[in-house]
Amino acid sequence: MTRLRDPYSLFGLRNYPMNIALKSEDFLARLASGLDARGLVTDPADMAPHLVDWRGLFRGEALAVVRPRTAQEVAGVVAACAQAGVGIVPQGGNTSLAGGSVPAGEGPQIVLSLSRLNAIRTVDKVGMLIEVEAGCVLQTAQQAAAAAGRLLPVSLGAEGTAEIGGIISTNAGGINVLRYGMTRQLVLGLEVVLPDGTLINGLRHLRKDNAGYDWKQVFIGSEGTLGLVTAAVLRLVPAPRHKVTALLAVPSPEAALSLLARAQEEIGDQVSAFELICGLSFDLLARNCDLKAPLAAAPWVVLMQADSCLSGIEEAMESVLAGALEAGEATDGVVAASETQARQLWALREHITEAEQREGPSVKHDVSVPIADMPAFLAEAEAEVARALPGCRANMFGHLGDGNIHFNVLIADGTDKAAVNRTVHDVVAKYAGSISAEHGIGRYRAPELAHYKPQAELALMRRLKGALDPQGLMNRGKVLG
Ligand code: FAD
Ligand code: MLT
Ligand code: ZN
Fold first, then answer.
1. In a mutational test of the pocket of ligand 2, which residue from 353, 358, 408, 409 has the highest number of ligand atoms less than 8 Å from its CB?
2. 294 with 275, same domain?
3. Per-residue pLDDT for 310 more than 80?
4. For the chain, which terminus, N or C, has the lower number of CB atoms within 10 Å?
């Protein structure tokens, strides 16, 4: 391999000990030779949507957006990048709320979009599994499962855009974690491309496989920093035939937790969602999305759902609600009388993010604390925001059943965002919580991870990163920074 002039001057490289054998135009021509006509995007206008995150907070630069059609093409692109020392930013639906899916850091990079690997290869009713490529939109996979009378039990507000590879790489949560766990609990097998271009097919249709290390776990939640997911085998569950959805006004987070305990004692694990929403969220929904709750204004609201393959779930929920009203855990409530009404209630919850975005700048927090501590955490964190951050408001909503709240601070102009993070995360640390429950670290929380994660764990993570991606090509500037 002939070394051209000083390798560090090519691509504007600094401190990247790698072989630079090609100028960028030669490198791109080399990539193009292994792709079809739509596989290499270099037109700035076409690249633009791939270089800015969903929130419009993070923007990056790239030599190109590369759009392979197959895992073999992905492997070829990665091998070429490894040889030329060009970084790779894996991208699915680009709905990351942690700035993980657009270029950051230094040195030449490409955005590698998996969106064209979008086939649903198998839906196995008996085996209760689906084999699907990384670029398949989550909602499309959900629909394929439903058509087979099964449920792919991961659901989130971005499901119409987020892709299977993205939800695996962020270990996405969503509204049904309470009953079905995080995305990690659904993954039975992965096909991945390592940072040197090696393609590994672990797509076994097995429920149980203890033959050697369970290496797929390393890639789930690694946010594109250890390799690329090109396909997956995911667990399906029986599609519930009966569902009941209720929206309840509750006086406090403490009351909400009592209601959760009552529901789980009376309905068991058929409680499939339990969301807590503060009153401010409903003000934002009304003002910015023209969406109104069918309840009088309340300080806190619970949106809960139970579903079952057996009839009787509706009656069980009625009994829970009667008990909750009698015990003062709830002060008002409505039960959806139809699927349409249930969707209307869920639309309130799913639009909070958008309503918040339209209100103005915010500093988002995706935190978890031990469930029993959530009321104390919310009270203390809200008080801290009021004390330390004048003019800021805490919009609190999320997955109370999982101990995960989105504590999003609507900020006044000029507010120091890093100070907001530290104010909230110091309270999280006091409750031995996590600064990222489901969105991941990305670029957004990398400084906070360095501050709060114990050094021994960071050192272990760096050893893993060094073993799999010694050139530091994968998703620079994310997670470990
Ligand atoms: P991208 O945003 O494209 O990428 C996410 C990360 O994964 C990046 O680091 C990227 O480099 C990496 N990546 C993507 N594809 C691959 C691949 N094939 N191989 C390796 N790495 C890859 N998240 C939740 O957990 N719960 C929620 O309830 C939730 N609600 C949301 C609501 C809204 C309105 C929005 C906009 C987002 C929400 N999110 C939520 C965040 C986001 O949707 C999830 O993180 C989702 O998993 C991202 O999927 P994606 O395909 O868009 O991935
Ligand atoms: C949600 O639960 O709505 C998401 O995680 C998005 C958000 O935090 O805004
Ligand atoms: Zn969430």
1. 353
2. yes
3. yes
4. N
Contact criterion met (CB below 8 Å) for 398 and 404? yes
Same domain, 20 and 72: yes
State the average pLDDT for the chain: 94
Q: Residue 8: is it exposed, middle or buried by C-beta count within 10 angstroms (0-12/13-18/19+)?
A: middle
d(CA 223, CA 221): 5
CA angle 322, 328, 331 (to 5 degrees): 75
Buried b (16+ CB within 10 A) or exposed e, 327-352: eebbbebbbbeeeeebebbbebbbbb
User: Atom 8, ligand 2: which residue's CA is nearest?
Assistant: 406
- Helix (H) or strand (E) run with residue 80 in it: helix 71-84
pLDDT digits (tens, 9 = 90+) for 179-194: 999 999 999 999 999 9
pLDDT top residue among 309 and 8? 309
Q: What total of structural domains would you count in the chain?
A: 4
Determine the atom of ligand 2 nearest the C-alpha atom of 175.
Answer: 2
Distance 438 CA to ligand 3 centre (A): 7
Specify the pLDDT at position 5.
36
Find the mean pLDDT for residues 288-304: 96
